[in-house]
Design a protein that fits this description.
Number of strands: 17
Radius of gyration: 18 Å
CATH topology of the largest domain: 2,3-Dihydroxybiphenyl 1,2-Dioxygenase, domain 1
Shape: globular
Distance between the termini: 32 Å
Order of helices and strands: EHEEEEHEEEEEHEEEEHEEE
CATH superfamily of the largest domain: 2,3-Dihydroxybiphenyl 1,2-Dioxygenase, domain 1
Length: 270
């Protein structure tokens, strides 16, 4: 079964610039810098998921046309069982293969990965088998103001029924909430994945359609939102702190987050 969101993949053109910006945003250093197959990447291991930042090599067909938020990688405790179950539900995947990355000093990491080739509605999707517990990315300065984990990842869709069938009925993520609000202009559906949320958003002003879904934005958790607001505000344009839509939360928006990813920072009040 799907147990967690193993990582989110972000594709960039300039890895060094992305590394600088994301380290300042997250308040954490990358815990891994590696390469493989002409592709360079850095990895931020957070409390409940990871962020894999990738600069593809020239001519790599896997990343043709890719840029920005690129992929969701779901952790499974039964790779073959999940692949067979998903195949019966019209979600096809390639045979698992080891993804290998190597640092300049010769350290290696490998994780078993199966690419979903059909049925994910346009969002690049992977299944990831069991891996060792990677060390956490160290905080830069005060831990209270650093990002501790992901609260939710937002998938944009014009076909909410199709998206609900994939994340709920096929992947088996618990369907926690379905809410429309004309004041927001959005229908939101929440699917639990470990202790974070895959949020599917439909703009109510748009007519339903069969366009591919896309990854849209990220909401990061912090232990102390006031400390995070002060820290991140030194490097980026940020909104004022306001009450979140979820009771017991306070949030602010990072208006110029790295790579143009729509970014919300969330803290709990109790």
């Amino acid at each position: 079964m799907i147990t967690a969101l193993d990582h989110i993949a972000l594709v960039v053109k300039n890895l060094d610039a992305a590394l600088d910006g994301l380290t300042r945003l997250l308040g954490r250093e990358a815990d891994w810098r590696g390469s493989g197959g002409g592709t360079r990447h850095v990895w931020y291991q957070l409390g409940n998921t990871a962020l894999d930042v990738i600069q593809p090599g020239e001519g790599n067909p896997m990343f043709a046309g890719a840029g920005g938020l690129w992929a969701l990688a779901f952790a499974t405790d039964d790779m073959e069982g999940d692949r067979k179950r998903l195949s019966r539900l019209s979600v096809a995947s390639m045979d698992p293969m080891p993804v290998r990355t190597k640092t300049e000093d010769g350290q290696t990491r490998t994780w078993p990965t199966a690419i979903v080739t059909d049925g994910a509605n346009g969002v690049t999707t992977f299944l990831v088998g069991e891996t060792p517990a990677w060390p956490a990315s160290p905080a830069v300065g005060d831990e209270a103001g650093a990002v501790s984990g992901l609260d939710h990842v937002v998938v944009s869709t014009r076909n909410p029924d199709r998206a609900a069938a994939f994340y709920g009925a096929r992947l088996g993520l618990p369907f926690k909430l379905d809410r429309s609000n004309p004041d927001w202009g959005t229908r939101l559906m929440f699917f639990q994945c470990g202790d974070l949320i895959v949020e599917v958003a439909q703009q109510l002003k748009q007519e339903p359609g069969d366009d591919p879904d896309s990854l849209w934005g990220l909401s990061w958790r912090v232990p102390d939102i006031d400390a995070a607001h002060a820290r991140i505000g030194q490097s980026f344009a940020v909104s004022d702190i306001r009450d979140g839509r979820k009771p017991g939360t306070r949030v602010f928006t990072v208006k110029d987050a790295p790579e143009g990813v729509p970014t919300l920072i969330l803290g709990r009040t109790g």
